[in-house]
Amino acid sequence: MNLKVILIGFASGFINGIFGSGGGTLLIPCMNNILKIEEHKSHATTISVIFFFSLISSIIYIKNGIFDIDTTLKVSIGSIIGGIIGAKLLNKFSSEKLRLIFGIFMIVASIRMVF
Fold first, then answer.
1. For residue 21, what are the CA distances in angstroms to 1, 18, 69?
2. Which residues cross the membrane (predicted)?
3. Which residues of 39-53 are buried (b: 16+ CB within 10 A; e: fewer)?
4. For burial by CB atoms within 10 Å, which of 1, 26, 91, 97 has the most?
5. Domain residue ranges of the chain, discontinuous segments joined by +
6. What is the pLDDT of residue 104?
7. Which residues contact 44 (CB under 8 A, 6 or more apart)?
8. CA 100 – CA 95 distance, rounded (Å)
9. Centroid of chain to Cα 44
């Protein structure tokens, strides 16, 4: 097994565990630039990986009592619908356009986090 891949997975899982999100923002650039995985495949693979570390983190959050079931259920409805639409739209964008949209999203998200 490739040590680079394991370290990338560790870092993204750690970030997701600490912040409750953010692992994907590390995974996609790492898969594109370090592992040289094609843009569409890195986005799809990231979603699959996030499922596993979100599941494990959720179990720990639930065990520690830091979990809001009502909000989770309500947000999940929109998330499922959005996930279906997003997955279907992924291949509609060129790799360049996908990278640009992701980059803009990251810039906007980072500015909102700071202010």
1. 26, 8, 17
2. 6-30, 42-61
3. beebbebbbebbeeb
4. 26
5. 3-114
6. 94
7. 87, 90
8. 9
9. 10
